[in-house]
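Might you be able to review the protein record set out just below?
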Amino acid sequence: LLILFIVIHLLVFTINERRPRYMEHVFLSLACIVPLVISVFPFIGKTSHYGYAGDWCWIKGDSGYENFLRLFCLYLWMVSFIVVEFVCFVIVIVKVGRHLKRIETTSEDSPAVLLKIRQYKKQVYPLLCYPLVNMILAIPVSANRIQNAIDKENPIFGLYMMHCTIYPLWGFANAMMYFVSKETI
């Protein structure tokens, strides 16, 4: 969710050419409230609807409701966010490419033009790494979980291998992206 908000923030920045500070508080509030609501959803009623956790802390059970809950709690949202991130990512890349091409074709070497190019390179390009890393890591993990929900009697070994290899790297990759940013340091 935070990476989705980074991409939306980046899109607004790219279109308006200035940092939308008013959105930051809204994004941080939503990033706290939405996961809380989703995590409380299964506790509505007299009993917990999560069910028993099996291997990999995965909701265990054969009922349709438990299968729905597996997908609803995380993977439906994650796949939806990745699609939106991808669309925003493409729009940002196209917009920045056009804008930089227009700046470079004017062949002005004025300080304002050089400052704008430096600003894009400093603020836009590092932020594009977050959704890119998120998409690269989320797609195999999501594919494995969705395949398991659809046909759990026939798991695919290759998907499990990618899942087991990639999933633990998610936090590490995000931390590396965070610490590589010179502004963050």
Q: What stands out?
A: The CA atoms of residues 115 and 121 lie 10 Å apart. The longest strand covers residues 52-53. The mean pLDDT is 76. The beta strands are 52-53, 59-60.
